[in-house]
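To whoever picks this up:

The parser on our side crashed when reading a file containing two proteins. I've narrowed it down to the boundary between the first structure block and the second sequence. Both blocks are reproduced below exactly, byte for byte. First block:
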Amino acid sequence: MESLSFFNTNKERKFFFLLILFTFIFNVSMDYIQYKKFIKNEIFKTNGIILNIYHKSKYNILKVETDNFTFFTSTEQNSKMKLFHEIEMFILTQDINFISYLQGFYTKSFNIVEKPRNILKKEKIYRLIESQHTNKEISSLYSALFIATSLTTNIRQISSKLGISHLIAISGFHLGVISFVLYFTIHLLYSSIHAKLLPYRNKKFDILICIVAILFLYLIFLNNPPSLLRAFVMFTFALFLLRNNIKVISFETLLIITLFIIAMFPKLFFSLSLLFSLSGVFYIFLFLKYFKNLNKYIQFIIFNFWIYFAINPITHYFFGTLSKEQLYSPILTILFTVFYPLSILLHIFNRGGLFDDFLQSIINLNINSIEIFIPFWIFLFYIVISLFASSYKNVFILLNTLIIAYNIWLFSFIF
């Protein structure tokens, strides 16, 4: 049976986009009301959870999350505050505009006091991970992989030099691996129950509903990381489309999901992690559209390489780090599909330190890198060509020519 389009008529399409627009305006208005309350006085008292601590030479920077916004502030270097501790403080609201309020801002603070608290479940998992490693940087890596905490500066730099930052920030890639493991596990547990008690039900659909429920709880537990939120919405939406025989892999579907997420969560409009997540899916769709007739084994071999080289121009507009070792990124991505679920299992059984020596050897690597940023006009031109390539095969051929030329030019700086 041929897949259907999500919209049957242009009238339906227009109604949807109007609904999205009104939803966006409403949510932005609600954020603006909160912002006006926030800046009403020059000094604002708030409570928050410490999401990260950036250690500087003479002071520390705290990343703090409140119910309505996220901000950064400085504190003394000898402060005994730790991740996930709840604090109360006064902050200054001067010179904070609405855009900064949505993005996350830096402000001065005083009278920072740690509040009595119950240990958060997220903190318990963080401490459990930490207890299985003697190296804080390795525990930082695993906690970022499992519970979306921030990385240490050194690990962040190493992952950037290796071109594997996308593997560490929890996103659709991780959700896909988790979903596969969950499907396999639930299938084993549910098959006999289904055969004996529920043979009339669609077993695959039941399993997928269970996976959606588990992933939703995981998403809430992690406090909605943008890239994972996009992946979850897309996964759930894809399940709905499949159930109704509507085409899943389409650029219109990606646009609908993008607009829905931004309309519901306007702050994510400024999220780089969401941008890279959506970009990754867009180029995956491009790959599937034009390379779908290739031999499956050839597809498997070139997929990660093509996606990596295709996203490079976007990456190097925002982040300039370039090294020879980044060419191993596609191979490391393939290996990660085994490492990730295995490392979760090892931590569950308190054997999380199994790969510590191997990871330590990677941390100790002396990787030489340079900084190369591309100008805005090249970035914009590449985006426009990519968008047109989704509709025209000739433009897609041009896009591949640009990808090859760009990456040869880029890596010529280090060879």
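<<boundary where parser fails>>
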Amino acid sequence: MTTDRKQVVILGAGYGGLCTALKLERLLRKNKDWRILLIDQYDYHQLKTELHEVAANRSGFETVTVPIARLVKGKGIDFFHAEAISIDFAQRLVTTTRGKIKYDKLVIALGSETEFFGIPKLGKQALTLSSVDDAIRIREHIRDMFAQAQSEQDELKRKAILTVVVGGGGFTGVELATELVDYMFKLRKEFGIAAGDAQLIVIEAGENILPGFDPELVNLAEQAMKARGIRLVLRTPCVSAEYDCVNLKTGEKIPTRTIIWTGGVRARDLVAEAGLKYGPRSRVVVNPFLESVDHFGVYVIGDNALVLDPLTNRPMAPTAQLAMQQAEYAAVNIYAEISGGRRTRYIPKVAGQFVSLGGRNAVGWVWIFKATGFLAWFLKRMTLVRYILSLDGLRLAISRLPALFFEKCE
């Protein structure tokens, strides 16, 4: 793919990549010398913070995806539907499944893949939650398990089939587990399963669920989960997985046919294999402007970037909030390079965090204020509405309001 204009190529249309493209398009709108090319293997943008709702059959594909063609229509952004395979920094070329792309500036925002920490057989046996397809796979798998259990006469086998294990008590694990409780309750009624046969277990290697979260809110979240019948296994790493069980470091063996792993993420293999300097979990070392320390004009953001907390000097957890922040800075800094301006140093700032606990319940904080229950759930929803507004204005937000606020919660 060749062009006479210079190109900013953005790999990935997730939170970071899409927001970079939209911000840079506004900055470069009057500049006819540069072109923005957005590349992704999917032709839709995924609201990944809401995938747990799809897995629990509360939301559908249409609710958590937006066609990229809709988002770039009428804007100076070209979308190329392909998967990036490799990057040649010397030649400034990206090889994709549909050919080679020349770039003048490059933004790597490819998102993450699941980190299994070398736990034997876990990658083979566990389901993951990284995409809409994953969420649908989880939903259908659990339904299949309940259907199988309906005709299973052996009590122990039936209980194993109906045991769901979520590995990892971080934000994704907690939100997924608390939504699945409702889904499993509905399935239990549909298939005539006794209450004591189905159970949901969350395994966390750390001291508490939600590592790094406010201790008071962590305690409330734990209480809410236990009240809903979720068993929490804390301070207990998983050491291996089998087709029909999870083995814990304590020696306990949990019979199960459903393992969902949410215990961590790492940068995609393509990023690590590209030859950039990287740190823990293959996250690329960047300078204060979010540019690779190895290659001028190559920016790395979101889950792919190793950004340190200015207070603790430890890596910041990869979140959608930080990916969108970094997108703004990457776009501004690329524009500064193009226009001869001064680049801006990126300092991460977390304005708030919310974690849903199923139904219309959540806990979280914004600035110095803490919120629980319906208020926290509402504020979390409004954060999503604000993001949707930033993508495509009022039109898109209004079309999503019924699904976001008025879904049936039983």
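After patching the parser it read the second block fine. The chain has a mean pLDDT of 93. Residues 10 and 151 are 51 Å apart (CA to CA).
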